[in-house]
Amino acid sequence: MLKTPVYSHLSKKYPDDVYEPAEDTFLLLDALEAEAEFLMELRPVVCVEVGVGSGIVLTSLATIIGNSAMYVGTEINPRAAECALETGKVNGVDFGVIVDDLGKCLIPRLQNMVDVLIFNPPYVVTPSCEVGRQSIEASWAGGIDGREVIDNFLPFATNMISTNGVIYMVLIDRNKPKEVIDIMKNFGLYGEIILKRKAGIENLLILKFRRV
Description:
The chain has one domain (23-211): 3-Layer(aba) Sandwich (Rossmann fold). It contains seven helices and seven strands, in the order H-H-H-E-H-E-H-E-E-H-E-H-E-E. It has helices at residues 8-13, 23-34, 36-42, 56-65, 78-90, 148-160, 177-186, and strands spanning 46-50, 70-75, 96-99, 114-119, 161-172, 189-199, 202-211. A seven-stranded mixed sheet has the order 3-2-1-4-5-7-6, sandwiched between helices. Helix 2 packs parallel to helix 4. It is globular.
C-alpha cells in the first residue's frame, strides 16, 4: 500500500491558510495507487499538479513514479505553495511550485509536454464572487454548479498534455460530470470515471482523461 505522506506541519504552521487533506484528497491518492502500474508503464517525464494545495498528492505521485520525472505544482494561494514545498521536503521528494492561476504560466513552455496532469479543483457550489481568491477559499469555491474554475481549466488541460498523456481530476455529482466528459470529448479526449465514493451527501468521483 502507498504510504500517506507526512503533513503534520500543515496543522502546526498553516491551519488557517491551507486546505487540510480530506475525503477528496484521499480518494485521489487511492486512484493513483490503483493506477500505479499504468503510471509506471507510461514512463512520464513531466508531471504537473494544478492546485497543489498541501502537496501530499504530488508527493505521492513522485513516490510512485520515482526520480525519472520532473514534478511541478501550481497554486494560486502563496501559503499553500509554501506548505507544499515543505511537504515535499519532509518526505524526501523534490518538486517545484509556481504561484499561478490554473497553470496558465506553463503555456506555451510545456504545451503538449505534460505526461501526467492532476487537478483537484474547487468544485463546491458557491456564489461567483467567491471564485478566484488567493486565500484558503480558493481550494473549494467553484461558483455556479461548482464549475467556473473547472470550465476555465479544461482548455488549458488539453493544451498541456502530451500525446500519450493522462489527466486525473476530482469532481462531484453536482458538477455534472457527464457534461465535463462531453466537453473533453470535443477537445479530442476520452473520459471515464475510475473511482467513486460517497462523502456525506455528495458522491466524489475521479475522472481519467486520455487522447482518443
